[in-house]
Amino acid sequence: MPQFQIHNLWPQPLVVHKGVSITEKQSDYVRAVEYYRPEVDNGWLSNDTYLLDKPVMKTLKDQIMDAFNKSIVDHILSLPDEMKFRMTNSWAVKHEQGEWAQQHIHTNSIWSGVYYLDVDEVSGSISFHRPIDDNRVLPLAIRPGRYKEQTPYNVNQYPHLPEKGDLIFFPSSLEHSVAKNQSKGERHSIAFNFFATGNWGEMEHELIL
Question: Which residue, 1, 25, 174, 180, has fewest beta-carbon neighbours within 10 Å?
Fold first, then answer.
């Protein structure tokens, strides 16, 4: 019988950490901040775009940075100590019943993430979308295709139903959307971005950020 190996080259990593803790004081703070309605009129965003820099949020930010460094910087990218990332901005997102988030990417950042405060089994999933110009697998040149089963190679959309305390990291260029909140309660999350800092490259390719 013929044998074969599959080598996954340059995959898109989606990292999910479970059970990151938040204090009651921090949860109350996120719910109480001022929100505005964006032009798309499908939810609420906090006016504060540096939410996790507030002293009350320090322990949560520390957990997020620790998880990011362990899973992304150290494990996936395996970077030396002089090549680092910093959190650039962070904001709260609120979705009431029937509200959702359109398909989008995060600009001016390299990695992004989201932390879930208030969710239940019908709050809606976050979905990640295969890039529309990604036709590296021939059957996907015509999309959506027909398949006997979905695999990581042919799927066009990957949904993740978050639980309270879930912390998710993904490349900022990876398109994602959020399904309608079917719950009677509000769905609260905190989104954030990361950018490179430190000394990258060497010789004529050196970049100091």
Answer: 1
